[in-house]
Amino acid sequence: MDSDPKGDGLRVGVFVCDCGLNIAGTVDTQAVTDYAATLPDVVCAIRNRYTCADPGQNEIKKAIAEHRLNRVVIASCTPLQHEPTFRTCVAEAGLNRYLMEMANLREQCSWVHPSDMEGATRKAKDLVAGAVARARNLQPHDDLSVPVTKRALVIGGGIAGMEAALELADSGHQVVLVEKEASIGGIMAQLDKTYPTMDCSI
Amino acid sequence: MNVSGYIGNFTAEIRRKARYVDPEACTACAECAQVCPVVKPDEYQMGLSSRKAIYIPYPQAVPSSYILNMEDCLGTNPIACGKCAEVCEPDCINYDDRDIIVKRDVGAVIVAIGADVYDPTEMDEYGYTRFDNVITSMEFERLICAGGPTLGHFVRPSDHERPKRIGFIQCVGSRNPSIGRPYCSNICCMNTIKDTLLLADHYPDVECTVFYQDIRAFGKSFEDMFQRSKEAGTRYIRGIPGDIEEDTETGNLTLIAENTTSGKIERHEFDMVILSVGVGPPKDLAKISSLLTLSKTSDGFFMESHPKLKPVDAPTRGVFFSGFCESPKDIKDSVCQAGAAASRAGALLNAGQVHIEAITSVIDADACKKCGVCASVCPYGAITWKKGEVAVVIDAACAGCGNCGAACKFDAITMRHFTDAQYMAQIRAILAEDPQDKVFVFACNWCSYSGADMAGISRMQYPASNRIVRTMCSARVSEDMVLEAFRCGAPVVLVSGCHYADCHYITANRQTVQRVQRLWNKLEKAGVRPERLQLEWISAAEGQKFAKVMAQMEELRKTVTEEEIEYTIEALKPKPRKPKKEKEAAAVAG
Ligand SMILES: Cc1cc2nc3c(=O)[nH]c(=O)nc-3n(C[C@H](O)[C@H](O)[C@H](O)COP(=O)(O)OP(=O)(O)OC[C@H]3O[C@@H](n4cnc5c(N)ncnc54)[C@H](O)[C@@H]3O)c2cc1C
Ligand code: SF4
Ligand code: SF4
Ligand code: SF4
Fold first, then answer.
1. In which band, very low, low, confident or very high, does the pLDDT at B503 lie, cut at 50, 70 and 90?
2. Domain boundary residue among B65, B98, B131?
3. Pick among B426, B466, B488 to test the A interface (most A CBs inside 10 A)
């Protein structure tokens, strides 16, 4: 896959998220955006109120088309939350999913340095600089696609395992239920009456 | 049991234990148990009655079949007794039955291994093992049950009399950091309320008193039950007893407790005391964890992928949690979670295909020097190598930890999406300006980076001097990445990852330790203070620890002088590379 099909060299777009006041309350997001615009190969730097919301995502897609972006940096929250969201977003705009990089300004800056706006902003700038540097080196990749064996294993035959196994079986899947004791049932089978209904457990 | 593989493509090897009784043929007629001479405590009845060596766990057991416990049997080789087989009409007893291993390919795994009920023996102040009439709430269940050892006649163990004054102690084995169980077990308040209602229903003259810290009756219709219990005459006293004394003559028990409402030390006498025991992580948690590369939260239960948004997904894709093993919960919540886990697993099975992230390792066959180091460090056995041959990665088996990439001395391995070039560029950019002010942190995706997130979510504050770079595993951090950070002027570098036994990539972080140790030696040799490179294990749940470590790193940073940094940059400058031929010869010789 070609990361630069149009041959126009690296074109990085940076999107800095306010996250309402979650980030902008502590980090000077405008200063971060202005700083981002000065970084190598950055051709557009845009500040959003909520980058993950539809208007924010639409702005990214628009910028990808308008500025012929081939790398995207999103400076917002933790990638553990929204990396899949933004990967899908850039993919919808025709960019390979792996050409998107995030900088974590919320969990790592604003939320943990609320009394140090200057320090938080400096840190945010560095994280964006790091993300842009990394983005300039990103390569497109294809996810591997593998077939799924249509059978489930349930380990433990208490109420939680039995219910899950039955539910899967009811929806037409083969299930292997493994219980280490001689009978399924777990703790519940040892109970007499159970709250809140006060009826028998078995 | 053994499980290998990855999302959509696991292989489970399951030991089907010998039952010695054919469950299909057994009619559960009980003839065999009647003739069996062996008498053993009945586990199902909490040892309050006995069973034989051949027995059915309980009348409603599934499969509805007897089972022979070989450890209890008098012997089958040679046959020492053989009575049961003689009387079994359908002829379903087979002394030669053996465990067999069955193999099953599966696409998804649901872990529902439950919890262990707390054994209060260690809390000697309650005399659980010393006083007959102190029992646990689990034993209570058997004593009040019509199918129990006393056929539901509620009597106390010492004299088989029906107790009138009954004391309940809450939070036994829960909310008690001194025994390593700081969490609330969720079910024991409601269970005690249930017990008081059952007692009041069976025996209107019974007097129940409950000693508690807080009553947690937050679920639907729970408050109503709590009020009914009070209306039925149950006394609730806020304060957990510190001690129990037994009257050896009567077997009666006196609880000594500070009533925290009145502030007075009180003594209360009871005929019987019930310890409302909590639950803890299941015994097999560590075993299942290592099979499926799972982790646990600080309470010892399994860690979910996200506490709010992915509550039934394990961090390992294709694995889901259901029930007690993820956290203590009641039946309703277990059923809800079972449904959620089944639906998540079902969606995966229905999809038929699954995408695996392209973050695998790639070996450049031309650059590979056939040393085999990568194959030896791969925790997944995902690299095949034979002496004298180029190493090859099995794409689908590679989990993408990056350990091999960091280990290859010949730059023959590229980690897709986490390449050396990407990291080097990132390190240089972050340290481009005023590096002396910055603590450089490598944090692994699954634990330490998540721990930093947890610090954020919990709004913990720490100094803003650190700059965090994410690696999938701490084992991805190569020597060169650390040295590069120092060369760029970082006063302090921290490598952080999952706790030693909890590595998301099985054992990869053992290589982290070795690599950091080698680096410490290198730094020392180069005249650089080794403590400027730090190694910390921070789990995803340890936001507080992350914040604390960041503060410590900042203190350490302040001790590093400009001169030290300047010296370091000079001392760690890469030696001019040997010409290629010479280097190759050295490698062959080495
Ligand atoms: C004293 C007490 C009273 C309670 N009363 C009530 C009540 O009145 N109402 C209510 O709603 N809830 C009550 N609960 C809670 C209820 O018991 C739990 O919600 C329920 O048992 C959870 O089910 P589970 O399947 O997750 O776990 P478990 O019941 O513990 O079942 C786990 C199963 O997994 C099996 N297993 C473990 N390890 C392995 C392995 N390695 N391989 C294969 N199998 C394995 C075990 O043998 C067991 O069968 C009570 C709990 C206790 C302790
Ligand atoms: S549910 Fe009640 S008794 Fe159980 S640990 Fe929590 S507070 Fe204590
Ligand atoms: S460690 Fe590097 S050189 Fe050695 S076998 Fe593996 S890829 Fe080849
Ligand atoms: S060491 Fe890690 S990255 Fe390398 S092949 Fe094994 S699983 Fe993949």
1. confident
2. B98
3. B426
* Chain segment A106-121, per-residue pLDDT in tens: 999 999 999 999 999 9
Each domain of chain A, given as residue ranges in start order, spans 12-135, 151-200
Which whole number is the average pLDDT over B224-250?
97
Q: Are residues B585 and B515 in the same domain?
A: yes
Of B144, B137, B142, B197, nearest to B171 by C-alpha is B137
Residue pairs between chains A and B whose CB atoms are closer than 8 Å: 312
Contact flag B113-A155 (C-beta cutoff 8 Å) = yes
Q: What is the pLDDT of residues B360-388, one digit of tens each?
A: 999 999 999 999 999 999 988 889 999 99
CB of B412 closer than 6 angstroms to any ligand 3 atom: yes
The number of distinct structural domains making up chain B is 4
Partner residue opposite A133 with nearest CB, options B219, B428, B456: B428
Q: How far is CA A154 from CA B126, B209, B212, in A?
A: 38, 41, 37
- Are B185 and B55 within one domain? no
Report whether pLDDT(B586) > 90: no
Report if residue B319 sits inside a domain.
no
Q: Is A182 in Cβ contact with B19 (below 8 Å)?
A: yes
Residue B276: domain span: 116-280
Q: Which residues have C-beta within 8 Å of that of residue B118, sequence separation ≥ 6?
A: B172, B173, B174, B181, B185, B277, B278, B279, B280
ipTM for the whole complex: 0.85
Q: Pick one of 3.30.70, 2.60.120, 3.40.50, 1.10.760 as the CATH number of A12-135.
A: 3.40.50
DSSP summary character for residue B44: T
Chain B residues in contact with A145 (beta carbon < 8 A): 353-356
Beta carbons of B244 and B126 less than 8 angstroms apart: yes
Inform me whether the C-beta atom of residue B217 falls under 8 Å from chain A C-beta atoms: no
